Amino acid sequence: MSGPEGGSSLSRPAEPRHPAHTTLVDNIGLLVTHDADRPERSGAALLIENGVVAWVGDAGDAPAADERIDAHGGCVIPGFVDSHSHIVFAGDRADEFEARMAGRRYEAGGIRRTVRLTRDATDEQLLANATRLVAQARAQGTTTIEIKSGYGLTVADEQRSVRLAATLTPEVTFLGAHVVPEGVDRDAYVDLVVGEMLDACAPHSKWIDVFCETGAFTVDESRRILEAGIARGLGARVHAGQLGESGGVQLAIELAAASVDHCTFLSAADVEALASSTTVATLLPGVEFSTKQPYPDARRLLDAGAHVALSTDCNPGSSFTNSMPLCIALAVREMGMTPYEALRAATEGGAAALRRADVGHLRVGARADLAILDAPTYVHLAYRPGVPLVRQVLSGVAGP
Amino acid sequence: MSGPEGGSSLSRPAEPRHPAHTTLVDNIGLLVTHDADRPERSGAALLIENGVVAWVGDAGDAPAADERIDAHGGCVIPGFVDSHSHIVFAGDRADEFEARMAGRRYEAGGIRRTVRLTRDATDEQLLANATRLVAQARAQGTTTIEIKSGYGLTVADEQRSVRLAATLTPEVTFLGAHVVPEGVDRDAYVDLVVGEMLDACAPHSKWIDVFCETGAFTVDESRRILEAGIARGLGARVHAGQLGESGGVQLAIELAAASVDHCTFLSAADVEALASSTTVATLLPGVEFSTKQPYPDARRLLDAGAHVALSTDCNPGSSFTNSMPLCIALAVREMGMTPYEALRAATEGGAAALRRADVGHLRVGARADLAILDAPTYVHLAYRPGVPLVRQVLSGVAGP
């Protein structure tokens, strides 16, 4: 466990310490555990033992501990689980952002510009940039982050991306199928992705992902790529429904993908299928902010009974924010979520999108990944948009 | 001058130091001065002498200095001038915010709830809350802040508010005419505001303001109140056009008010009148974010030639953000401003709304109030919404 100035590597298990080291977090204004019966409680304290939540109860009943952390009356929430980011890249596309704000439409082809810059960068440059972005995310409360490749698009460059990402998080996603690179035949490229590139990347990855969208990959190409990854033991995730309705959502469900991400454009059948599946609909409002597209309708998904996550999609093209609090504020302002639904989607929802049961909540047994807010309630994350309200971040370590 | 951990009192002149103390800010990625011929420049450095900008030029030509501040390649901008805040208050209205997000309409009457809580608070509680909010604003780049009364609404409580505000900023606004307090006859209240209350508050204030809106004060009442303040030597400012078109905009111009604030609803005649006046139209997008109203049309005002400022309106009811970067991001996303126009409105525009020529820019002679960003250009304030990008804040002191 470390304070806000601690290491920037997220979700890395460490060796358990012996004897047990205990930390009591108290003087908590409001504690959010996501316990089914009592998701939030006042007057509570939380005991951490070797980086794992060992006890939650009324502050007056708190056991003795080796160390005490004073929440100063602030709200304590599970650390954010940002289940969708693309932070292994080089370069900046502020000019494209500015042009979009002046009316130009977002197109997936901008990805190729980052590909050129990423290929030209050294390992050290890529890792320094990603490390800086992870540290910045952590200071904003993110304690688990997924990182995708997808700006390499050659065997060597994709492998480098997943290898570097794996030094920062265990949640590494191989996204060779981000776009077809310039000057490459698309059938030959799909062959490469499912062949030599997958061979090179799978050992460093936990997930495989495809951008299934007009301008990127078709449903059939996406199926072939995802099935190849699944055959190698990777979990499936899909980008779909960003620019229009497509068969990508149904494909994700068909393949039992952990998550289908964007879901800005969904048919009624898509919503119904999501509601009766375990595939999480991950919504990325930073994208709509930065592309001036309409925001996804979270209310429709929640009312249908679908699982919903919120994530940043941090990348230099369509969403260069890594602020989960901003995503929560936008979800509440623009997407019909209540503050609690948005918080839950940004924590337990993200964990479900990564098939993780150990993070995203603070029930007994969870990793003690948490954020202490400079606010009495998590509602302030939306009520006070843009204000840096995360005062302290703790990251637990995996228990024995 | 002090670093980010320095005192939280903004814009307080200090005694000049002898002999002159010089500081060179260099390794600047992009320097924004708002110079008419060259508003932004690369490869520049900036020399501060006793808290005032003494020289701007190419880094290679920089003079020697006693001290050096390394901008680490970041963009250097004038500190934000937040010309509209209501931060002397007690209590929290997160529940009202949540109800609005679920569909309830914003009504000015919510102010009365904060009035009750503010009256019940001690001086120490009010000052601690306001001091915390000023420090939080400063950490986000705000180096000049205006603070209004308006949650006291008795002679003693309003006087207390302006007295406490004056310990934090010279830009203090008497807003006894915020709403008519509960159980008080409105004519009697207007008499009180222009009489005993003004007598008690004017010595601590620089400005007088009125909430000229349905549910608050009529145009005739507003005129009487503003004229009484002007007669006491206070400058005029007006709240108008938040909930609908009203005569408040024209009244502000008629009285040569420094600023008319909100301007969400404007008639064509209002826009034309603003364009041919020196009254600044101050836009407060945090309000529209938090009340789900449509955003003001900044483009229409700029195209007409009006002076535009951006401000937070930080208050516990309609806009509890004190993030000028968020206001910039919303202005770019929602209000038709370019990133440069939004930055300028948040700096030099705010200064114009306070009739201040010494802040809001970094031309030679300005106070050295500046923010160093963790970004190569100010465009990132909109391109990276929600991310805390202000790395360091310097506040100049008034020169001899």
Name the features.
alpha/beta; 5-stranded mixed beta sheet; 13 helices; homodimer; globular
Helix content percent band of chain A: 25-40%
Runs of chain A in which pLDDT lies below 50 for 5 or more consecutive residues are 1-8
Q: Care to count the β-strands of chain A?
A: 18
Quickly count the helices of chain A: 13
Oligomeric assembly = homodimer
Q: How is the biggest beta sheet of chain A arranged?
A: 7 strands, parallel
User: What general outline of chain A do the C-alpha atoms trace?
Assistant: globular
**Alpha-carbon Rg of chain A, integer:** 20 Å
Across the major sheet of chain A, the strand order is 10-11-12-13-14-15-16
Rounded mean pLDDT of chain A is 93
Query: Using CB atoms under 8 Å apart, which protein chain pair has the greatest interface?
Result: A-B, 38 and 38 residues
First and last CA, distance of chain A = 15 Å
Give the DSSP E fraction of chain A (strand runs of 2 or more residues).
15-25%
Structural class of chain A: alpha/beta
Plain-language structure description:
The structure is a homodimer of 400-residue chains. By secondary structure, the first copy, chain A, is an alpha/beta fold. In chain A, 34% of the residues lie in helices and 20% in strands. In chain A, the strands form four sheets. The first copy, chain A, has a seven-stranded parallel beta sheet with strand order 10-11-12-13-14-15-16. In chain A, strands 3-2-7-17-18 form a five-stranded mixed beta sheet, with no helix packed on it. In chain A, strands 5-4-1-6 form a four-stranded mixed beta sheet, with no helix packed on it. In chain A, helix 4 (155-165) links the parallel strand 10 (147-148) and strand 11 (172-177). In chain A, helix 4 crosses helix 5 (186-201) and helix 5 packs parallel to helix 6 (219-231). Mean pLDDT of chain A is 93; it is low at 1-8.
